[in-house]
């Protein structure tokens, strides 16, 4: 089984690593690492888990994730087909936290970046939705000389720190990783939910994925996610319902059923609780 503490290859004489991920899908296990991660999603869509936030990712999302913040970018099922023509492409920079302090980042001109790095403990995102100069900088970063990479990186970070569209994602800030077996349990649970949300899932089933009793699992899950299992399951189901409402012309009742709801009234109630809109209002808002 793949380790959840992700080891980022480092170069002794560099303070950050530039990486291009280009394949049929992204790494699909919940993981964390001590480096800060700056990532531009260039191609592909899917579900992201960042700390305690479950959301969609899409092209031209720019994200800054703090050290040890658990996360995964899980592509939609079509990307895992053996004959898929789908492409998952991202551009990332991994920054070693010991280099984000004085003397360089202690300069007064960089004070605003210190605030951004604090926000990154929750995960920060800007949705550009289209190519702009900042996304172009990220795409070109791997082709530049080390000094040019540093200048481009500072430009991108300055853009994030001064853009009013940036949003923090996770309610919980992560500073230190919990025990490795806790992350393994969380990964097992998230993977199970993302694979089976369209079917009935009992508390007994999901507790078994974490190798815990039901009562122990409830305590464990709330401690690590600040949510109950039913809250998270409903968030996953409604997130997928939103995607279907955007991308298909299926009737609302059929979408509810395909996302694991057997009762339309319950689906409507959970949808409004999570999105603050009814399904009908949501359709009008996006179209």
From TrEMBL:
Keywords, ordered alphabetically: DNA-binding, Transcription, Transcription regulation
Molecular function per GO: DNA-binding transcription factor activity; sequence-specific DNA binding
Annotated HTH araC/xylS-type domain residues: 187-285
A Pfam family recorded for this sequence: HTH_18
Domain of life: Bacteria
Protein name: Helix-turn-helix transcriptional regulator
Natural source organism: Larkinella humicola
Taxonomic lineage: Bacteria, Pseudomonadati, Bacteroidota, Cytophagia, Cytophagales
